[in-house]
Write a structure and sequence with these properties.
Blueprint: H1 5-12, H2 17-45, H3 47-57, H4 60-67, H5 71-100, H6 106-134, H7 142-161
């Protein structure tokens, strides 16, 4: 869904360029405010939990784009949730790699992680381009149909992968001295 947001906002929703830029800038700017909170939650409850919660928010994002069609709705609903979810995923996934991989191998595994992330973006964009040509229009536009498919596929993969993640950070148990 993401590669088609520009066209969707400019053509289907009729945004001007200022509205388009403001909507696109909100999630990255708001995410800066979420880093301390999500860092605290990762430290207190573990990266796996934050990754699961944030990961399960991601399927809602493209679906929310179907129902929000003004700049303010997009900023305060899907973009706000997007800022929280993507910050949580990025922070906890990075921390998860750092907690699991010895220092000497981190560069290789971070590159490996980013390679597969990039491949997912590429395959998702190609799949979306293919589907754009063949899917029927369920809502107002074919893009909204793609957003629904994107959300459902994200949810499907969440159920496959997110529960397999196990916390590896060793938590120290508090001892009570009597």
């Amino acid at each position: 869904g993401v590669p088609y947001m520009a066209y969707y906002m400019l053509e289907d929703l009729g945004f001007n360029y200022i509205e388009y830029v403001v909507v696109n800038l909100t999630a990255p700017l708001i995410s800066l405010a979420f880093y301390p909170l999500l860092g605290y939650l990762s430290d207190k409850y573990g990266n796996a939990l934050v990754l699961r919660i944030a990961g399960f928010l991601l399927p809602t994002l493209p679906i929310l784009w179907i129902f929000c069609n003004t700049p303010l709705q997009l900023i305060f609903i899907p973009q706000l949730i997007s800022a929280f979810a993507w910050t949580g995923v990025n922070l906890s996934a990075s921390n998860f790699i750092y907690d699991n991989i010895p220092k000497q191998q981190r560069g290789f595994y971070v590159a490996y992680f980013n390679f597969f992330l990039g491949m997912g973006v590429l395959i998702g964009g190609l799949l979306g381009s293919f589907l754009l040509q063949i899917v029927p229009i369920i809502f107002v536009s074919v893009y909204e149909t793609l957003f629904l498919i994107s959300g459902l596929l994200r949810l499907f993969f969440d159920f496959i992968f997110l529960f397999r993640i196990k916390e590896v950070r060793v938590k120290k148990k508090k001892r009570i001295n009597l």
